[in-house]
Fold this sequence. Notes:
By secondary structure, the protein is α/β, with parallel strands linked by helices. The chain contains 5 helices and 6 strands.
Amino acid sequence: MLKNIPPLLTPDALHALASMGHGDDVAIVDANFPAAGMAQKGGARLVQLAGANATQALRAVLQVLPLDEFVPQAAWTMQVVGDAGAVPGPVTEFAAELQQAGEAPAATLERFDFYQRAQLAFLILRTGESRKYGNILLRKGVIASNAP
């Protein structure tokens, strides 16, 4: 047991998140996402978080992972196919979680652009999310020491 670690982050998830470096991406994806194929093609680590929905997983990840402050965008969601302006329920929840964590809002990517970026991610966290468009990409930032 560890203190102050969100319990839904498994040892495999914690190890993968801790192994990420500045600028690496993590994809938090729903149960419908082709996560295994993407991980196999791109070499990403695949960790299952089947007991969590995507919003719960995002909340847990944001407690341990800083987002990149040196790039214009550090979070992306997937656009609704055929209606790029639509905002599905999970995306609304993601926006609230990002805001609560003090992070900038997520940008959106067309479905196949999202797939391409997810395939290049360091880590794919596949959740038990059953709602469509429960997918978000995050770019890891740095944890700075206060030492001069």
